[in-house]
Specification:
Length: 188
């Protein structure tokens, strides 16, 4: 063979075994994911989903199209309904930011519950956009949004693992610490 590098590349391509999911870089197929008792997980985590108020502007909490539910962005709010505010890198620590992201996740679960009637209809958390109210020099956005991602896995198990973007924002509405939106695959 004239080009040994080409031979090596072809050998590697054809010798890789992509049939073993444990060696795959992508997530398992949704049908391979174990079912979980979402209500029991919420109870174990001592989470009570809040009642969401009617949106104050011209939008809705969720939009369902086919078997996908798109959520409006939800900010971080304390259990008493007060907003969890502040700027990461200035007013808030990473741990406080993670708590804010977890609280935003609880509000998103409430909006899904209102849409579906039962969170056990969730097949998969597909995509998440986490926005962090941060100073320009703050760089730990992904650590903050881990508070949300960890909650989704605690509630839904493997079905809670998702693709994600974690980005910093100069500001968020009402000085929210975190705002998160997601796309969820649900049963028909």
């Amino acid at each position: 063979m004239k080009n040994p590098l080409l031979f090596i590349c072809l050998f590697l391509i054809f010798s890789c075994d992509n049939s073993n999911p444990s060696t795959s870089l992508s997530s398992p197929k949704k049908d391979d994911l174990p079912t979980v008792d979402v209500a029991a997980n919420l109870k174990t985590l001592n989470i009570t989903l809040p009642k969401l108020k009617k949106p104050l502007a011209n939008y809705v909490h969720t939009v369902r199209t086919g078997n996908l539910v798109y959520t409006a962005g939800k900010g971080s709010a304390n259990p008493d309904g007060t907003l969890y505010t502040g700027k990461l890198g200035d007013d808030l620590t990473i741990e406080q930011g993670k708590e804010a992201a977890r609280l935003a996740g609880i509000r998103l679960l409430a909006s899904l519950q209102a849409e579906l009637g039962n969170l056990s209809k969730v097949k998969r958390i597909v995509k998440v956009l986490g926005m962090v109210n941060a100073t320009p020099d703050f760089t730990e956005h992904s650590q903050v949004i881990n508070g949300f991602s960890d909650l989704m896995v605690e509630v839904f198990g493997e079905r809670g693992k998702h693709a994600r973007s974690a980005v910093g924002m100069n500001s968020l509405p009402k000085n929210l610490a975190v705002e998160i939106e997601m796309v969820v695959e649900v049963e028909d």
